[in-house]
């Protein structure tokens, strides 16, 4: 589903995408109950949407993606057709309520996954980027690096190839290899059609590079036959959001006061320092941080800063001292993230989950 002619900034091949922010997505799918929308579209009340009945929803998606109206441009009409095909899988004449909800559910999940300012890129992955990667100048160096990080003391080449495939990213043209649909429809068939010395030991780097390229070529062939639509969300925590908050004294004071309101005081009207973590969670969104518990790497940075400031000493402090310590924690987090930014990405395949008849990806013994 190519949603724009402009290629993604981080993708050199054909996996082009349109960037949507959270407000775009929530306007698209979050303002109206999906069941209500389904029944509104289902004019003949047969419990399924025909391709014709589906068109208003497709038009809404096109509008949210910033496309011109259907019928005004051959390029955009092709995209509308691809969107419709995603609902119908390109074969069905009717779409059930479950199928209708799939894309909406995924987009809502991506929008609400934690960070309201995250962009979401809708990508069509068709194998071309993967072929470009395995035939490009960086292939050997990147795959050798992956090989050196795989721990398989008693594993076969088959196991090694699976683990290497799991390390590839959408930037290299690989849809999420752990996704059930991708396993069943792309990875498993590619593995079955591969031939090679699976049980040669020890596994040499040269054999690994040659055999992985063969496997990747098979994956690319299956992707060409069944392109995968991926919703990609990416964010980098570099302390800039904290810096903006700290530089705005009025906003900072308002945010700190709001945090204090969520912390229980003791009988003397003081605030336990152990509640600093709770207060920090309250102001996380204002500082462009994820909620505590959402991103492991960020949680570790927070834990290190809190430990450094000895916040677990069991003492209680007055409001002003509590806010002063909270500000110092923010300053510490800002410095840590400025020095070592943390990038997080999330990928969701825009497909209805396949039933239990799917073939799981398993390592050979």
TrEMBL record:
Organism placement in taxonomy: Eukaryota, Viridiplantae, Streptophyta, Embryophyta, Tracheophyta
Naturally occurring in which organism (per UniProt): Tripterygium wilfordii
Protein name per UniProt: Putative calcium ion binding protein
GO molecular function, one term: calcium ion binding
Domain EF-hand: 29-64, 251-286
Organism superkingdom: Eukaryota
Region Disordered: start-end pairs: 1-23
Gene3D superfamilies cross-referenced by the UniProt entry: EF-hand (1.10.238.10)
